[in-house]
Design goal:
heterodimer; A: alpha/beta; Rossmann fold; Elongation Factor Tu (Ef-tu), domain 3; 5-stranded parallel beta sheet; 6 helices; B: alpha/beta; Aspartate Aminotransferase, domain 1; Aspartate Aminotransferase, domain 2; 7-stranded mixed beta sheet; 3-stranded antiparallel beta sheet; about 40% helix
């Protein structure tokens, strides 16, 4: 038994349920907290989304089972401002956002820390598949989870460094099947709950419904426009560039022998540029909105970067940072580096930080496209 | 609330539990300090005894034509009669319902339907500080087929006489004003409204759920036409309420069925609950003068102690008369959802406002009604409410714990305000 009190973010899913259970087993005083992030009116009751009202009920039930106090906190206002508005604006700009990163960076962890301190907690915990522990100089650091299929370090590059010593990730050393096994053994109601895949505030799975509701009427992102090839020749029409993501394979009907991919979105002209797969390759990336967990790495440092969830890490070299924009030189060309997505920077398994992808730089022949 | 257990035996022994050992992980937390009596007050042992006795006689349906049915009927009517005596009204005016919310809904919606079936769209007048069960019903009427108008109240609990006159000139179907506010304990100037409404023969409803047993209700002749009561705020059973209806013709029913309770509240009567209600009311009114002064003194001690240690503390409702059991304080700049939870972890049960909107972090409409939206938005309310289990030691300990927790919450909010914005 310890006097240490820990606030655990409980979504109602199996991961955070087991997190709370493991900490309780380890003798901590565990407090469960569920963030109510958006208005659930209109959410289908069968929604699999982990943070829906069902999620709150499940979390409460698990907390009761574990005999720990459980509180629901309403963070709707902050979540709407920091996550949903950003999500909508990014699509409006022709980019592809990472709302989970925004939530972790701006809402979830900062809020947990604040509430945790207010509740007299010594630490905060979540069910992310990442590990926390000392770095090479003993400093509190984050590492990829042992279960490489579930590793979620990618989503945490935006955390405030001051949080690091407070964080507990009990699932970092476990696999998903071990977690489910533990949940079943403990008799948790959430043991066999399906994975949540959708974006929590898009329960229908179609984010364009949300954009239609939240972008101003006749926003260019939802207006028809041209699909052009790399020479600028019109090859088709689209009904709103917000429906496209760079790297997405785009069927263009008859007449084209090769598959086409979205190479670029030009919001100012409402154009979607398509081209062959090799046109997606980039050799360097510009990243802004930078955040570093242990201070900015010096230029020429060799690092590994990850440009989307579940993508394999790629060797890269830290370049110059100019006016808040860092250039990363890639060791090998990468496909589908998507503006708006996160670029997480690692030293082996250790998370150093990251930023948002501003644009991909493509050395010939694609430069001719005039990447904006 | 299942984890909460109150028994008479636990009251003295809990004083020996040092609060520092309050461990939130314990299987059945027995709160050291229960300061949420305005939300629910534990069943009083004498009430439990009265209900156990009633249970032996009233196991049957009071509408049964057999001996057992007549016994149940007798229990029910005896309770109704006792309540009438205690409240100073005819027992025929007492209609049992399933709680304060139902009483308030029946008064507002039943009155609106009555006026509408008479051919005119009902205008409902109420104050902005009413309980959500009145506000919600009034809003419903306004949405459906009528309209609403707000009668402003000052922080002192006084209604503005000129505003009242103007509203009464419009011939409302009903005026609804509570006697004691459920969040601040403010005593509203209902007798003045009674007189004004009588002069013009306008029906008046008053929600007295928090008032009865806490303040003297005064001359029974000055009771409004419709009055709501709830048993469990008095140490009686849950799901038991009463609506005093002086004139049955004021209302039409909202529920339909077997015609029980004069047709106003159909459904099998709860004779055992009624017996508990009557017992709780009798106890509360018998104890009233002593208990009110005891709780008033404890409340004052708590208020002074907190003011001393938290200089910027705001006390809501202190501008006018207050019922003795509620202390509503505010700390500027704190988020309203954190303080009650932080106190919970230190063994103090309290709430941010009315329990009926707990979990919500939106501004209290009650405070907005008394003080305006700006002040209501800037101050996090904490309602500490006292009752029959409250001992002087509870207050002493609360005075020690609350300032520390307030400081901790405040410093947490100060030091980590949005650390990072990528």
């Amino acid at each position: 038994m310890t006097d240490k009190r820990i606030l655990v973010a409980m979504s109602g899913g199996v991961d955070s349920s087991v997190t709370a259970a493991l900490l309780k087993e380890a003798g901590y005083q565990v407090i469960g907290a569920t963030m109510k992030t958006f208005c659930y009116q209109g959410t289908p009751s069968h929604s699999r989304t982990c943070c829906g009202l069902d999620g709150i009920m499940d979390a409460r039930q698990v907390a009761e089972r574990l005999e720990i106090p459980h509180y629901v906190f309403d963070v709707e206002e902050e979540f709407t401002r920091d996550v949903i508005d950003d999500f909508v604006e990014e699509y409006g700009r022709g980019r592809t956002p990472n709302p989970c990163v925004q939530c972790n960076s701006r809402t979830k962890f900062g809020d947990l820390l604040r509430r945790g301190r207010a509740l007299g907690c010594d630490g905060i915990a979540t069910g992310h598949y990442v590990r926390s522990g000392p770095g090479p100089r003993g400093e509190a650091s984050l590492f990829r989870g042992r279960d490489r299929d579930k590793d979620q370090a990618y989503f945490l590059w935006g955390l405030s460094p001051e949080l690091l010593p407070m964080l507990h990730f009990p699932l970092g050393g476990l696999t998903k099947s071990q977690v489910r096994e533990r949940a079943r053994k403990m008799g948790l109601v959430t043991a066999d709950k399906p994975e949540s895949q959708e974006i929590c505030f898009v329960p229908t799975g179609d984010y364009r419904d949300l954009l239609k509701k939240r972008l101003q009427p006749r926003h260019p992102a939802l207006e028809p426009g041209r699909i052009v090839d790399m020479e600028g020749t019109e090859v088709g029409q689209h009904d709103g560039y917000a429906g496209f993501t760079v790297g997405q394979r785009k069927g263009l009907g008859g007449g084209f022998s090769e598959p086409h991919y979205v190479i670029e979105i030009r919001p100012e002209r409402r154009e979607v540029v398509v081209g062959p797969r090799e046109a997606l390759e980039s050799t360097a990336i510009e990243v802004n909105d930078l955040n570093w967990l242990h201070g900015p790495p010096v230029p020429d440092t060799e690092v590994q970067i990850q440009v989307r969830h579940r993508a394999a890490p790629v060797a890269a070299r830290i370049g110059e940072t100019d006016d808040g924009v860092l250039t990363l030189e890639l060791a090998r060309p990468q496909e589908a580096v998507t503006p708006g997505q996160s670029c997480a920077v690692f030293d082996d398994d250790r998370l150093l930080g990251g930023g948002r992808i501003l644009r991909a730089l493509r050395r010939s022949p694609v430069d001719a496209v005039g990447l904006s | 609330m299942e984890g909460l257990r109150f028994s008479p035996a636990s009251i003295p022994t809990k004083l020996g539990v040092p609060h520092a050992s309050a461990n939130p992980n314990q299987a059945s937390p027995l709160y050291d300090i229960y300061l949420d009596h305005a939300a629910a007050t534990p069943l009083r042992p004498q009430v439990r005894k009265a209900m156990a006795e009633a249970e032996e006689q009233a196991g049957a349906n009071p509408s049964g034509v057999h001996r057992r049915g007549r016994e149940a009927r007798r229990t029910l009517e005896r309770a109704r009669g006792r309540m009438g005596e205690l409240l100073g009204v005819s027992s025929r005016c007492i209609y049992f319902v399933r709680g304060g919310t139902e009483a308030n809904n029946l008064a507002v919606l039943g009155r609106a339907d009555r006026v509408r079936t008479g051919g005119s769209p009902p205008l409902m007048v109420s104050t902005p500080v009413e309980h959500s069960s009145v506000r919600g019903a009034v809003e419903r009427v306004a949405r459906d087929h009528g309209s609403e108008a707000s009668l402003p109240v000052q922080p002192s609990g006084q209604v503005e006489a000129s505003a009242l006159r103007e509203l009464l000139d419009r011939g409302p179907a009903l005026v609804s004003i509570q006697r004691v506010n459920h969040e601040t304990g403010s005593v509203l100037s209902v007798p003045r409204v009674v007189r004004a409404c009588r002069e013009r023969e306008i029906p008046l409803h008053s929600d007295m759920v928090q008032a009865v047993g806490r303040i003297a209700l005064g001359d029974p002749d000055l009771l409004p036409d419709l009055v709501s009561f709830s048993a469990h705020k008095l140490g009686g059973p849950r799901s038991m309420g009463a609506l005093v209806v002086k004139d049955r013709d004021l209302l039409v029913p909202r529920l339909f069925g077997g015609g029980q309770e004069g047709g106003l509240r159909p459904g099998t009567e709860d004779a055992i609950g009624a017996a508990g209600f009557a017992a709780a009311l009798e106890l509360a009114l018998n104890d009233l003068p002593e208990e009110a002064s005891r709780l008033g003194a404890l409340r004052q001690e708590l208020e002074e102690g907190l003011r001393e240690k938290i200089p910027e503390l705001v006390v809501h409702g202190s501008e006018g008369p207050r019922a003795p059991h509620i202390l509503n304080v505010g700390v500027p700049g704190l988020s309203p959802d954190l303080l009650p939870r932080a106190l919970d972890l230190e063994g103090i049960a309290a709430s941010a406002g009315s329990a009926c909107r707990s979990g919500s972090t939106t501004m209290s409409p009650v405070l907005a009604g008394f003080y305006g939206a700006e002040r209501a938005a800037s101050v996090a309310p904490l309602r500490l409410s006292l009752g029959w289990t409250t001992a002087p030691e509870d207050i002493q300990r609360a005075m020690e714990i609350i300032p520390d927790v307030v400081e901790r919450v405040r410093s947490a909010m100060r030091t980590t305000n949005k650390p990072h914005r990528p």
